[in-house]
Design brief:
Number of strands: 9
Radius of gyration: 17 Å
Shape: globular
Distance between the termini: 28 Å
Strand content: 15-25%
Number of helices: 7
Helix content: 25-40%
């Protein structure tokens, strides 16, 4: 997958495995679906379908960033990303605000630290990212994707829901491209998670315990996985 701010590329498999093992321990819970409201680059999601292959789950994913969703939807069709992108191409796409699949891919793959259409970073391995995106797209080919914030999944019932939101007190704006929105309403998000936990299992990635009801499932050093 592409570089992405806050992505779980290095620890995605560990998180997915922890989610699977923790769900199996819930003997009275039979999952009907798996959902990720903060899909990003699907670093965790890509391992989920294989882990839960004995279950007939509905797979849903969403993100409020329309560029990410559009790119994944194109990749799900078997589209092959470019293996290179010059500085000139990159800034041409940026200046024209192109939303073609190629332009969106380059906007992530060639950006400094994966910050969409920020400064061009020549050291990024575009060919490797193209390959990884294709592999991930095959793994999530049966996931229904949609644009929107986490509340679009408020009707989920008996779902495993994994959330990787903007972390509390990180002072990062909830950002899409060059538009900086107000700070992420973390308190409202946690209220939603607690409410949704009545009929679902909720997993949250964070630095610190997000609420009194949360149970630590996986300690990855600075980052941790909690369950409500």
């Amino acid at each position: 997958m592409c570089y992405f701010p806050g992505g779980k590329k290095r620890i995605g498999k560990e998180i997915a495995t922890a989610i699977f093992n923790s769900t199996l321990e819930e003997s009275e819970f039979t999952p009907k679906g798996y959902t990720e409201p903060f899909l990003g680059m699907a670093s965790v999601y890509q391992y989920i379908p294989e882990l839960f292959n004995e279950y007939e789950l509905e797979y849903l994913g969403g993100d409020r960033n329309p560029y990410i969703i559009k790119l994944w939807q194109k990749l799900q069709t078997g589209w092959k990303p470019p293996k290179s992108c010059s500085r000139e191409e990159y800034y041409n796409y940026k200046d024209k605000n192109s939303v073609s699949a190629k332009a969106l891919f380059c906007g992530f793959a060639c950006a400094y630290r994966g910050d969409f259409r920020s400064s061009y970073f020549a050291k990024n391995n575009v060919e490797r990212q193209a390959h990884d995106c294709q592999v991930t797209a095959k793994r999530i080919k049966n996931v229904t994707l949609s644009t929107g914030d986490y509340t679009q999944f408020s009707d989920c019932y008996q779902n495993i829901i994994y959330c990787d939101p903007p972390y509390r007190d990180t002072q990062n704006p909830y950002k899409i491209n060059e538009i900086k929105n107000k700070e992420f309403d973390y308190d409202s998000f946690i209220e939603w998670c607690v409410r949704m936990s009545e009929d679902n299992i909720i997993f949250i990635s964070e630095y610190t315990k997000p609420c009194p009801q949360a149970e630590l499932i996986l300690n990855l050093g600075k980052e941790k996985l909690f369950k409500i």
